[in-house]
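Side project, low priority. Logging it here so it doesn't get lost.
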Amino acid sequence: MLPAKTAVFIASRFEEFAELRTLLRRKIAEYPATQFAPIDLNDGRVSHHPPLTDCLAHVRRSEFMILLLGDEYGSAAPSSDKSFTHLEYEEAIREESGVRVLVFCIGEHYRGRRIRFSDADLSLGYWQREIEARHTVGFFEPDASVEQMAQGILESLLAALYELRFGQLAVDAADQHRDLFDAIADDQVVDDSEVTALEARSFELRGLSIVDDRAQFSEPLAALIRPAAVAAYEQREEARRAIKLADYGCAVTHLKRAIEHRPLDLMSNFWLAMLYVSLGRKHECLRARELSERAARIALNEGEQYRAAASYMLAARAARLTGHDDEALSYAKLATDAAPRYAKARIELARCLVTMGDNTTAMKEIGEAAGLFFPGLREVFIDPLFAPLRARTNALIERIRVQTVREAQDVVTAEARLAALTDQDTPEGLPDDAGRRLAMEVARASAARQHVRVCTLVASANGAVRNASSEQHRVEEEVSRIDELVASDSALLVTQENYQAQLRGHPAWIAANWAIFAATILMLWGALQWHEGRVILGFLTAAFGCYLAYVGAKGRRFRLRRLAAVRTKVRELTEKISEYNARKSALLSALAHVQEVAAQSVTKARQAFVLFEDSPLSCSVRLLPFVSLFTCKRGDMVRVLNGQLETFMRSSARQVQIVDALPRWFEDDRDHEPSGARLYKVTQVEPDRLVLSRAAAYINAAG
């Protein structure tokens, strides 16, 4: 299905602005970013309808009318005292019409950007007064070039289309910074330390929907319980359809009916005021301010600070359209007070400051907006009011780009240090002229790789610590068993050595050799008796001596055998004890090696962990691949800053439970001052509780 084109009716006296109409028609038709269909009835086309009927039909089918008001009123239409252009204008401003009229005054009557009412031509003078009362008029000096006029009118048309489409417009601004339209609509918020930051981002991207409360009225029972609210909702639904079809007059009618059913309906008040302002009708802007203020009060009463801010911004636009710049500035300040983190409110305040001539303060607000929601700066390049600030805005964007690249380079540098720590290839750095988007993508990819490396090192260190602990337990058991064996064998060795000493002692020698000495004496004495003739006595004595000699020899042999056996036993026990001690030394040496490996692994993991949490994890969350604490779901990795948990619990009325803390060896580093940034894994999400695991973010994540 082809997209519908935006019809733009060009109204003026043909002769007075022929060249401008031709150039303007071409510029509008050839504008690349938006599908325009310019309607210029002086283009030579032939119609079978009467000229006035044809003109008014084209006006009714248009979304915009560009009215070029010159120094002449023009000839009257048939059966009327008003000119063709005047009648076309009146058709566009009918109450039920949804045509946005853009008026540009060009001629001698309008030098110095003010209307000098025509006294010579009363019809022109009357019409000039009517236009001044109803519209915010654009002026061009009569000696300005046709090119300047056509370009200025085109820019105003783009700004009006941006308003009429409620910010949904793609534009092609030649003077934009190269980073601006390449901006990433991040899902995370910059350091979302407040839960309101999530609401801010949602509002930046989505705005205030005309049917935000659809779920409340989708049940059939709602029509019986809250008939007025349901009736108002149905009218808003019809208004939404009319807006989608660009039938803004019909949308106004339905929103009026919605307010009749439910005067304090926030969306009805807001969107009717939005349509009044977007249609640019000055006489309806007072009513728009009333509706916007009412919507803001309703929103504040309901605690909807961003809706209140949007309503105050709308009141500021209405006040500015009627020329009440001071009041517009007050409304814009109320918007930023209601929602300080709402970037569009900052842009609206900057717009009011530019109107007041305070460009310096306006740039400060634009800078604040850039920090809150960078793509919001597109509005500066859409609204012609910001044209004087575009060069300075480009300089601001360049500073943001340089800062983003520098922060991203810090993340990459941290990866290089981590790579050196783990003996891996060093990543390439970012070029100085890298764009913001590239810098963010590179930083996120780098941080993701660093997280994987840290997880791998932590898992390895944890495994090494567990292995060392298991090995220590096994070695201690083995050493204890060896010590018991050594103690038992040592006691036995002492006993054997004592026995050996006894066998070597004089008493044992005498006990083993006395019989031999006695046998020798007896045998000598027996021989003497035999020689003296006492043969029997000598024989008996010699025989007893031989017996004693036999007994002595046997005792001596027994002693020597026992001594040899004890010596062998002592030698065996000594060797066994030496083997036990050698086994014990080997076990302790192996354990020391395992513990040294574990200590080295722990040191490396801790260094990588500290490096990761001190550098990449502490940078802006837009440079990280981790989600916000306020947008997380089960299984997500979240970065949490100091004090953020307390803020989250206070703001969301939910408790946060921390489970599975990191091992003591991992975080027990007295020489390291924590950066305040920590990584958790969401393990459980409940309506009133959020469970975060520190260990799962590093140890279990490696798998």
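Brief comment: The mean pLDDT is 81.
Revisit when time allows.
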